């Protein structure tokens, strides 16, 4: 739609058009066309319209819904825009041009130029100036383009940055971006390649900014970078380049833009050039399973999803292309445990690319693994969340209430109805939630209690629904959307003047989301689980089976596990191999919660010397035994452990510790 509007504004301004011919041009219904075009009409009636002449800044203001007078660029945004202005080679630029475009003083521009020059010197590139040519970039064309692409990606994360980029591009050529975007869409459709809308936009902006450099600036061959062998990607790149530049393009240009495209396109399982990543994907998944102490049931599905993410990430990191992650702070704050464990699990990928993975990229992989763990938790909860209903009047009245509650919570499993005075006779292992019409003096440990009325009003039912869902996140239950809520109440309300529906949507969404904000992480830390009572030091050599049995003894003595759990841990090693080996002479032994776990716990056994876990490739000196009650409660402690062991000095200190006190002191470092 936007592409068509820019075309009309450039070619049909001040010309009278009929609504039917415009509708045909858009290939959209008349009402939809009118709603988009009216802001750009100088006059219109029922049958005709006339488009007004519009300046680039007016188009950008309308497109983004932002006035130029509201835009104040930060120093970072100014530096990035200044670089892209020079990079685009639109015209000979002087300090005055920068002042006019960025709306800042000469002193500020000179300071910005200095900072851009300092940043470029790292890549042995320069920002030069001559009176005749103005400002120009000098250095490796590949590095200059990469710098442009990364600065563009950063700018597009802010509304002011988007405003600046769009304003500069439309002032270069009013319909250039729209044309390039349409070319990319058609080329990708032809080859059945899918790009996310945000990635499509970034690519269109980058092609537009680079247009004048293609065929004029020499793009050198990049030794050490993988060649793109995909015929589809190369064909798309060549097609786009020919449509944009209308001049013959070199193989190096096709390769460069193929590389750009590969950073956005998900992996293709049938592309043999990426088969070397298959084993890496499997290794990452198995590594994550070991670190998190869970087994992913949908291995094939997870393998495919991880591979689809890994291929573009591989090209981004190999070429040094930046992908912003606007959620990274939130991910690290709310899901820090999964982030830490994912960082460790991705080490096989780090070996392939030969560098550290940026935190933004780790954040995306954390979401993938977090979703998989969440899926396991929901499946487990669906089977595990059990409720009992108590009533002072006896079983008959309990049954009435149970019927009402079952209607409210169809995915809960109601195991029993009884009178309140018989609560002490009910096995605590058979229920998780208690619904009762009267207060209980002593609520059993780790059980949720909800006081309800025998007959509840709609308001009371809604409050109960929200409270239970907030604490248990019951699968199969969801709150209505903001639109559904507003649509339901609209017939009974009248909006005050100046209040738009969009504002109401925003307020309702904020209220709904507030109730689902993550509470303070109450999951235990490593030092809260591995206490002095849970630590043992064994001076003599033992077999790996004996070591696991000995490591689990404190958990058995405190009834956190049963003997069947120890047997299950040993059986799993015999069945799956040394999967509990997490490297550096450490093993994290565990089995499933249903194999005999009563309570969350961890214990540690340090041997004087190493014992081979099945073979000489897996020597273990430190056995950590985990008894997990689900797939989530232990993640914070495991993240602490991962963080602790990521520093070699901590690992060596643990392996050489001679007392429980020394071990506790080291373990507490992981909590910091």
UniProtKB/TrEMBL annotation:
Residues 272-379 form the PRD domain. GO terms for cellular component: cytoplasm. It is found in: Cytoplasm. Residues 385-476 form the PTS EIIB type-2 domain. The phosphoenolpyruvate-dependent sugar phosphotransferase system (sugar PTS), a major carbohydrate active transport system, catalyzes the phosphorylation of incoming sugar substrates concomitantly with their translocation across the cell membrane. The enzyme II UlaABC PTS system is involved in ascorbate transport. It comes from Enterococcus lacertideformus. GO terms for molecular function: kinase activity; protein-N(PI)-phosphohistidine-sugar phosphotransferase activity. Residues 528-670 form the PTS EIIA type-2 domain. Its main location: cytoplasm. Keywords: Cytoplasm, Kinase, Phosphoprotein, Phosphotransferase system, Transferase, Transport. Pfam families: PRD, PTS_EIIA_2. The lineage of its organism: Bacteria, Bacillati, Bacillota, Bacilli, Lactobacillales. GO terms for biological process: phosphoenolpyruvate-dependent sugar phosphotransferase system; regulation of DNA-templated transcription. This is Ascorbate-specific PTS system EIIA component. The keyword Lyase does not apply. It comes from the Bacteria. The keyword Phosphoprotein applies.
